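Q: Structure tokens for this one, please.
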Amino acid sequence: MPKREDYISWDEYFMGIALLSSYRSKDPSTQVGACIVNNHNKIMSVGYNGFPRGCNDDDFPWERTGETYDTKYPYVCHAELNAILNNGGASLEGCKIYVALFPCNECAKAIIQCGIKEVFYLSDKYADTPGTRASKRMFDSAGVKYTQLKPAKDELVVDFREENI
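A: Here is the predicted structure, written as tokens:
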């Protein structure tokens, strides 16, 4: 029997891990996941957007508008930063990060600082915002490559039913 020909690429696999991680996010409006991979295609860490450990997400706001203090923005840790912090101390020098949404300027700083050298993303819907423009400026200056991933498939389905395993 010949081998399968319709398997996914490494990039699609790692982006799929990032997207699956986003399902852990409790954010009602935006769910983002991230997956960090070394140059041997070993997953170093994953993360998703949510509140810091020890902060009960029932006690904090999820709103997007209003006084800053009363919105999610000063509290939520983005997927990229969570993945960096979840790594457990191993070097991320030369790694790649896969994330559905182009990183904000705060996450870009952390990505650069920990030595990640390549960013793969699906959406750049905030491309014209000052934060995203600042991210690209910093990435360009620090030599971090960024690539919009164009998967061969529009969707992957994860099926938990035992009869399909």
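A few notes: The CA atoms of residues 7 and 13 lie 9 Å apart. The radius of gyration is 17 Å.
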